[in-house]
Design a protein that fits this description.
The protein is α+β, with helices and mostly antiparallel strands and 419 residues long. It has one domain: Orthogonal Bundle (Cytochrome p450), CATH 1.10.630.10. This is Cytochrome P450. Keywords: Heme, Iron, Metal-binding, Monooxygenase, Oxidoreductase.
Amino acid sequence: MTTTPDPTTAGLADQQVRCPVTGASLDDFPFSREQPFAPPARYAQLRESDPVPQVRIPTGKTPHLITRYADVRAALANPAVSSDVRIPAFPAMGAGEQEAAARARPFIRTDPPDHTKIRRMLVAEFTMRRTEALRPRIRATAERRLDRMEETGAPADLVADYANVLSTTTVLELFGAPAQDVEFFRDVTRVSGGRDSTAAEVNAALGRLFGVLNALVDARLANPGEDLLSALVARYLVPELITRQELLSTVGITIVAGRETTTSMITLGALYLSRNPGLRERVLADPSLWPSVIEELLRVLSVADTIPLRVAKAPVELSGGTVPAGEGIIALLGAANHDPDEFPDPGLVDPDRAQKHHLAFGHGIHQCLGQNLARVELHEALSALFTRLPGLREADPQGSLDVKPDSATYGLESLRVAW
């Protein structure tokens, strides 16, 4: 397919957009999930009939979706596929996302050498050995939250009372930031990652976040500690290897992205296990299965499904079609992780599955930096939760789920549970 001009005004964005080759009306994207444990059914239809389609996103642009596992891997590893948010065709999903990101320059929205410099700065801090060292602290946080839930009694909100506190506290403690007001960071994430947020709203939210982080940097310059922020200040900011803005942006995106995705995974993982008692009882009887269960939950739930936004700098040849140079790409992690050619019976969480190379953390040079920490958090959060509360269940089983309406990460606003 060849590209269509991006409708950049509100009037044009409301007009019907058609595929220039077939003349068919383009799908409006994103699609809604019909149920919480699988991507939209439309993904499977496209994977079979039109695996690299153009769609229309809320900003009026018409990027290509990539729906096959092999094609998603190939695109994300292709050096001709750019993550630079400043490129006009970058398929930002929210009205304020592209403008704010172009100003803040988070490293996940940059290309080498800018991306390489920041990633090398962080990669040693997120090795398996270092994240394993955090396991006792994460478990202690989980146990304290469960103590509080049992003291208060059912029902509880699994998001606000457990998942959000655990994930946010973990990443804040890593940087030596005060963890008392976890709701502040949740609110910043809600606005900065919301597809309906304007550029002014995103900039204001990031301004509040950077204000808090800037004060922390000043404190570390005056009195260094043993935390990751102190190390980054001493090793990179003081010798002027990075600017203060680069440091603030890097720490900010790591906190925001780290807490949001893990909160969603803890909540949805707990919901899946509560609705599948056979699997829950099996892993509780044999805790050695937890790592395999975690990997399968990551694959099946794919909460960061639409995070890999890209632009083709040159034609990208894929098994399902070609993305011409200069056009946007959305590499659908959920579609890839539910590709039956790669994962037979893809909707099943199967701890015995032989193929474990899912794409929940992406692929290529932008693969999630915090994946080792996320795995430890999920393991400790879910094992502590169901060891203490093996009868955990939805408090309102007949009610509809409170799905976040416009977030870049799939998840729930709240989940009332009893035990």
